[in-house]
Amino acid sequence: MSSHREAPEISKDPVADSTDLYAFVSPDQPTTVTIIANYIPLQAPAGGPNFYEFGDDVLYEIHVDNDGDALADVTYRFNFQTRLRNPDTFLYNTAPILTLNSTSWNSRQFYSVRKVMEDGTGTELAKNLASPPCNVGPLSTPNYASLAQAAVHDLGGGIKVFAGQRAEGFYVDLGAIFDLGDLRPFENLHNQYGMSVFTGPAPGVNATNRVNVHSIAIQVPITDLVQKGASGESDPRSVIGVWTTASRQAASVFDAETGKTVTSGPFVQVSRLGNPLINEVIIALGDKDLWNKLPPAGDKQFAHYYAQPGLAAALPTLYPGVFPNLAALVASGKPRADLEAILLTGIPSGIISGFQNNTGSVLSDMLRLNTAIPPSSNPNILGLLGGDLAGFPNGRRVADDIVTVELRAVAGLTFPLVDNTFTPDGAASKVTDGLTPASVTAPFLTTFPYLGVPYSGFDNPS
Amino acid sequence: MCGGRPRREGKDMSSENFTDRSAEGEQRQEPSRRSVLHGAAGLAGAGLAATAIAGTLAAPASASAAPRAHPGRAARVSSSAEPVIVHVRDVGSGEMDVFAGTSRVRLRDPGLAARLAQAAR
After folding, report:
1. Contacts of B19 in chain A (CB under 8 A)
2. Between chains, do A88 and B8 touch, taking CB under 8 Å as contact?
3. A260, A433, B55, B97 - which has most CB atoms within 10 Å?
4. Is A256 touching B (CB cutoff 8 A)?
C-alpha cells in the first residue's frame, strides 16, 4: 500500500500510521494548496462500538519545506481530544446524530491547529474544532455527507481544515502485488514458480475499496507556504516539499490498576510519509523503522535503495523475457539517477519542457509540488508520465494512479531522462496493477476535502 | 489507541441532571509506586512516583542531557499530578532517563539505579 502498515513497528500502531499524503494546487481554488494526510488504515466501516478516531496521545503534523534544506519552514500541528458525554453507556450514540453538537452523540472528538515556523514560533490557528462522527449507518448518521461537510472549518485568511473519517481513495491490488509480485493483467507472464496457477490475464482487484481512513486536510493560500517573491514555474521558490509525521511521547507504561496507559517525555517521531510507496517498497525491511523516525534531511543514508531498487531487480526474474532491457540495466550496476531525481531531489529544469520541481541537492523524501503550475483542466491519472504537469510526481492528487506511475518508473520507463542511450522495454509503458479511480466505489469530491464520503458500517460489507 | 483518558463532559444522559464531569475526567491519578514499577518492567526499567523522583533530582547525580522538548514545542514541566517515568538503561553505570511532562533528562547515578533495581525485585 502507499504507506499502510509499511514498517514493523508502525504496523502495530494504526492510530499513528500515516497511509497517504496528497498535495496539489486546489482545482477549485487555484490560489491555494490542499494537503491531505491520511492515518488509521484499512478501517472496516462497521468497526463499532468504539468507532475509529484520532489518537489523543498522538501529535500529528504536516510539514512544508520551502528553501530546499529538507527542514520544515512551516508546520501545521494537530492535537486531538476525545470527550465523552456519558461514560455510563456503551453506545457511540444514543439516537440519530443530526448535527455536530447533537446531544445524542456520545464520543466526540475535537482538535486544535497550530502553525509553527522554522524558528519555533507558533500561532494557534484554531481550537475546539469538531471532527465529524464516523459514518455508522442510516439510523445513526442520516444525511452523512452534509453532516461531515459541516466539519469543514473556515479559519479565515483563506485557510480551511477538516479532520475526520473519509473513504479510502488510494486504489491498489494489494492481494496480488504482495503475492510475490503478481500483477493480474499480466499474471500469465509471471514465472509462477513453476506452478501454472494462472492461465490468462485477469482484471485488477482494488483491495482498499470500501474501507475508510481518517484524514487531516488543510487548504492554505500558496503565499502562506512559498518563499516571498516566488513567481512562475521556473522559479525555484515556487517549489515546496511536503511530508507528514506522527509522534508519540517517548515513555509509556501500562497502568494495570487503571487499565490505562501513562505517557510522558518528549514527543518522538514514529511515522513519516512524503512520496507514496517509498518506505513500503523502496526501503528494506531492516531499515523501515529507522526511516520512520528520521526527518527527510537525513535520507542520504537511504540513497542506495533508490539507486538499486529491489523491485527493479525482481521484475525481470518474476516476468521472464518481459523486461530484458531492465535486466541489462540492473546487471550493469548503473545507479538509477532517474529515481533519485524524481524522488529525492525533484526534477530539475531542462529535463521536461515547462517543468521543474527541484529543491536542490539535499537528498530527501518529500512530496514536491511546483505551486506555480496551475491545475489541469483535463487531469491524467498518470501525471507527468501522461503529460499532465499538475499530477504526480508534481505533488499528488487524490485520483492519481501512483502505483502504475511508480511501477513504470521502476521498470525503466523514466531512465531515458538521465541516459538517452537506454531504450525501455515495451512492457515498461504498459505495466500496471489494472486499476483506475473507477475502482473506488465512493466518488471523489470536486471540493475540499476532495476524498469521498466514508462508507457506512450499515452498508459495508454488504 | 491508548493514552490519556477521554474527558467527560456535559449532560449525564442517564438522568435529567446535568453533571459536568470535566474536572474529574481531566485529573490523572498519580500512579502508585507499585503499579508503576509493575508497568515499567516491560520497559526494562523502573519507575517511581513524582515525589520520589523530585528528591533524587536534587541529589548530586550527573545530568548529562538537558530537558528536550519537541521542536517548536515548549518543554512542559511536570506537575505533581503527572507521571514521572524512569528508564534505568544500565544499572551498573547508573545511566537512566527520567521522563516528565514533555521532557527527558539523562542521569548517571549508580546508587539510585541500584536502589531502584533492588526495589523492583
Report:
1. none
2. no
3. A433
4. yes
To the nearest 10 degrees (0 to 180), the angle between helices A324-332 and A310-318 is 140
In whole angstroms, how large is the CA radius of gyration of chain B? Answer: 18
| Residue A12 at interface with chain B, using a CB cutoff of 8 Å | no
Residue type, A27: P
Q: Which helix (H) or strand (E) holds A253?
A: strand A239-255
| Alpha-carbon span A406 to A311, nearest angstrom | 10
Whether the CB-CB separation of A221 and A32 falls below 8 Å is answered with yes
Name beta bridge partners: A252. Answer: A263
Q: Specify the pTM.
A: 0.87
Question: What span, in angstroms and rounded, lies between the C-alpha atoms of A358 and B107?
Answer: 44
Q: Which stretches in chain A have pLDDT values below 70?
A: 1-2
Compute, in degrees rounded to 10, the torsion defined by CA atoms A71, A13, A44, A100: -60
* Residue among A221, A217, A167 at smallest CA distance from A444: A167
Give the bridge partners for A314, in sequence order.
none
Q: Evaluate whether ipTM surpasses 0.90.
A: no
Whether B1 sits inside 8 A of A15 (CB atoms) is: yes
The model's pLDDT over A197-247, given as tens digits with 9 standing for 90+, comes to 999 999 999 999 999 999 999 999 999 999 999 999 999 999 999 999 999
Q: How many residues does chain B have?
A: 121
Q: Using a CB–CB cutoff of 8 Å, tell me whether A194 touches chain B.
A: no
Instruction: State the cell numbers at A384.
Output: 507527468
Chain B residue with CA closest to A247: the answer is: B70
Burial code of A232-248, b = ≥16 C-beta within 10 A, e = fewer?
ebebbbbbbbbbbbbbb
pLDDT one-digit tens code per residue, A281-293: 999 999 999 999 9
Q: For A323-377, what is each residue's pLDDT tens digit? A: 999 999 999 999 999 999 999 999 999 999 999 999 999 999 999 999 999 999 9
Cell reading at A135 = 459514518
